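We include the pair:
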Amino acid sequence: MKARLAAVVLAVTALTAVQLIGVAPARAVPPAGACHDPDPGRAPVRELPWAQKLLDPQRVWPFSRGAGVLVAVVDSGVDADHPQLRGRVRAGKDFFTTRNRPATFDCVSHGTAVAGIVAAAQVPGVGFHGVAPDAAILPVRISDRDVDDRGETLRIDPQILANGIRYAADAGAKVLNLSLAGYDDYPAVRAAVAYAVAKDVLVVAAAGNGQQSGGAEWPSFPAAYDGVLGVGAIDIDGALMSGSRTGQYVDIVAPGVKVLAPTRVTGHAYVDGTSFAAPFVAGTAALVRAAWPALTAAQVAQRLIATANPARGGLHSTRYGAGLVDPYRAVTDGLDLRGPGELPAFVPDPPDEARIAEAARQHRVATVAKWLTGAAVGGVGLAFVAALVLPRGRRRRWQAGWAAPSPVEPEIVEPPEQTFLI
């Protein structure tokens, strides 16, 4: 009776939430016996989340929406009937159970949240949306829970994880999201990751939660494997999330504190962790792979790192990596990934004969103009002199004139010398 009542409450919750966002009722029901205590559906959240405001992936959608890129979500499965994921989720495969069935259901909402951050569609009346809404999701189910009955992180069978990674690589995934982390280096997982990297799959992994004490760097796998892009988490203030592991394996950071994500069946919930920072990077990688299909996985990773926005830790920090992922710059920046090339040899341009001839002509014209100007000035001067001379010449009838004689000074007559008596 209690189970029937819970099912009715779940159905009513799902119906109410779906009616609020104006889409068809969700139909996803886990197969019998697949979930021992499935998460209930949640009500939709209408507000635009802070992570979407910060990264603003809509700016880049005129250039890329992730079309044609398959993103593998190796996780707890994905609820393919969530209103914002319908039509975006392939069948995938469930490796957690022995039955050969698709992974289009989710017991705990973890994989659904990850898939939604990557590729959830826009829905009227709901602010949340994915980074690359036209990307396709390949669900690969390798666990049914994210925590055990005591609330502790559930250990995942490394061989099941390795099988799921290899399956995703063979299924054509171009981006592979691993929102999981552990301290142990399992040979099977390491080999599976190397297999995916060799098939040109960009592997994105969470750096892990539960920060070590004393400043020591603890390992984190698969983030620390070669070819894997390790992702740390930041909060709304840009500070590293408390518990986000640090180390050389942190390549980049993304929002991971109180980020909004879809839950199984319908609706949304606020979640924390590097598990939910990783899909922001995976979604950005899908945008880049759609816009730049000729780039290899390694070049896409290089592009994401090179276009990251500076974070508090500075460049190549063990806490923040290269900085905060930037979807717009990752797609639109015109980076030259080949490195600097040789400068071409200097070849002088041939002389422009027409220009030289025109310059000579203009010089001749200027010279003639100078002479004509001089002649004109001289003519004006002669005319002025003639205007002074001609009237006087006519009055004298052109006879020479003499100047008036100089006055003659009178002769001074000196008296005769006289002798004076003293």
Notes: The domain at 19-332 is CATH 3.40.50.200 (Rossmann fold). Confidence is low (pLDDT under 50) at residues 1-26, 147-152.
